[in-house]
FAD-binding FR-type domain-containing protein (Luteipulveratus mongoliensis), 308 residues
Amino acid sequence: MSTMSVAVQQAVRPFEMFRVAVKTTTRVSPHLVRVTFTGLELSEFADNGYDQRIKLILPGTDGTLEDMPTGDTWFTEWRQLDSAKRPVIRTYTVRAVRQADAEVDIDMVDHGDSGPASAFAGSALPGDEAILYGPHAAYDGPHGGLEFRKDLEEQTDQLIVGDESAGPAVASILEGLSERARGLVCLEVGSADDVLDLRGPDGVRITWCVRGDERGQHQRAVVREWLDSHPAVGRDEGGETTVLADGQDSAYWEVTTDRGDDVPPLSAWIAGESSAVKSMRRMLVGEYDVPKSAVAFMGYWREGHSEC
Ligand SMILES: Cc1cc2nc3c(=O)[nH]c(=O)nc-3n(C[C@H](O)[C@H](O)[C@H](O)COP(=O)(O)OP(=O)(O)OC[C@H]3O[C@@H](n4cnc5c(N)ncnc54)[C@H](O)[C@@H]3O)c2cc1C
């Protein structure tokens, strides 16, 4: 490489903006749509698996993405845009990356037309444009945007709980789990037709709950029964967490800040509707002393509130 080309080469950021278009949409279940995006740049989209989160950026009310800022201060500039020109930004999980085909799949809950991302999932057509703000393969370092504790997957029991919105992350986590992993995965969906055929290691029990009157109620019963039959699991008060969001307009977000060398007796990954996550947290932390050194409580969305 010449000195000149080194001099003009741009530093790659951990996350970059990838211009994409819809290639296909597939109904995975009545309320889950797989959107396959294509775009030449996706050959450089990093394939990190697990619960890698990204931003999906969709045209705003003016129908274009032309005004979307892309530089280092894009978020500040985006907030200052006139509302009619401001693209929609939502958080999603990468479900699959096929670098050789320059494709990325995102599995999106279709919860009706109340949200622009859900409306997009329900009506997207080949050629519809979007931007994925996601991890760039050329970045030489951790990209961030993953909470699942891969370092603990063989060392301690896993407790993984989620609703439909967390289903794609749980499916990817299960695909990545070591064969030696053990624990409980408990997923909740709104109807029996939305139960998926997810498989994991032999030592990981996968349980589906169909929602009752209250979000998460059946899951709490399943988790309680599992914890009661594993009395050694979870009884530890070590570690610290940081509550990063618990506001009027934001979903609950609490993750560990203490990734010390000690192996906790349980690694808990809990995601879904914010109040259900908080209820699960009350049970785990309040009643079962789940170790704070290995918890992630993540409100993926909040009933009655748009993401932003
Ligand atoms: C780290 C992370 C990863 C995520 N990964 C995924 C993913 O892979 N797939 C996925 O589908 N979602 C995922 N989500 C959740 C997704 O970001 C939210 O559901 C988002 O609010 C959807 O945007 P929207 O435009 O459809 O609705 P919004 O405009 O944000 O909200 C409009 C209304 O819809 C309600 N609403 C929002 N989401 C849901 C829902 N899931 N079910 C019922 N009502 C809802 C809101 O309470 C509000 O009343 C993830 C969230 C986070 C934080």
Summary: The chain has two domains: 7-135, 150-301.
